[in-house]
Amino acid sequence: MNDILINKTNAFFQKAFHAVPEKIVLSPGRINIIGEHIDYNDGYVLPAAIDKIICFAFEKSNSNKSRIIAIDLDEEFEIDLDDAVQLNDRVWTNYIRGVIHQLKSNGFKFQGVNCVFSSNIPLGSGLSSSAALECGFLFGLNELFNLDIKPVDIGLLGQKAEHWVGINCGIMDQFSSVMGLENKVMKIDCRTLDFEYHDANFNDYSLILFDSNVKHSLFTSAYNKRREECEEGLAIIKKHFPETNSFRDCNVQQVLGLQNLMPEAVFKRCRFVVNEMSRVIQACEALDNGDIELLGQLMFETHEGLSKDYEVSCAELDLLVDLAKKEQYIIGSRLMGGGFGGCTINLVKKGHEEEMKSKFRALYFDAFGIELKSYDVKIGNGTSLYIQ
Ligand code: ADP
Ligand code: MG
What we know:
2 domains, Alpha-Beta Plaits, 23% strand, binds magnesium ion, 4-stranded antiparallel β-sheet, alpha+beta, Ribosomal Protein S5, domain 2, 11 helices, binds adenosine-5'-diphosphate
């Protein structure tokens, strides 16, 4: 599947720039098994890079001008490194501008590029096409101009680029896009950025994503609002338990004890965060022990928390998870990513995948009149050079 994409991108580059690309970079999207909305709360997360990628072809332009072509959108733009970098109405260009801005403001010396890119990661579905875009572009510049940026720092610069675009995201998406390894999930400590790989062995179960095909406009404002609510909650916790530096240092009892001192919404956000943190630890142990049923149960609990306490679900995602609960052969399901649309991630007994897809497609269409898409995902490598 990716060979077709790579050949297409390579051919497009040659037609546009009348040259063979100097570097081809593959940058993946990601899934997250469990640990949602806690990367920015100093928790652990359990993501993995996937076999869906953005493919970039690059050459140096030998000037300060860059020309960048988004094949899938049939759009392009030019940017001159001598000019101040500014946000633009065409959102996709901002991820590239954000990367250039980060490199410039951190003092890196580089020049312009000619670049084309194309992707098989669905856009805006919670598989982090934006992180793949930032990290792949950064990786390419790092290779072309020998900037000597370490993989972890590519993730951190990519995160800053996304902040510049306007989403105050945590580190999970960029980190998993860069550091992923085939058939491994990563347990990342988002407080220290320490991480360990664990075998992604789901025994008799497949990972299937359902794409709700909706993205409610609440997403950006609500995401940033949740961060503020968590900060407010943490400040109250700190007042009563001064030894607490982050949610990592407190337990659910402490949060429950402060219920009357917190606005209702803030209390619910805090309760979700501490519960979710302990679920990730349990889930990782369950995966190591081959107890996939327990892992699935924890995923259902995460969805419940995201829907009722963190309030980032929507009717479409709730229906998909409710349907999943009714099927014996689905042992876990939850919304994945920021929420308000995008995908659910499901653990499905092998052999039942097709039955599940057609049943869910029909029921979802009946309920919302929307086409339900599904993706079979495999766990793949992080951002890398493609060697022909
Ligand atoms: P997600 O990261 O979950 O896919 P986001 O809304 O964070 O969703 O990022 C999607 C945005 O990233 C798109 O709206 C677009 O601006 C940019 N993007 C991602 N993939 C591509 C692509 N193949 N071509 C152009 N822009 C892309
Ligand atoms: Mg994104």
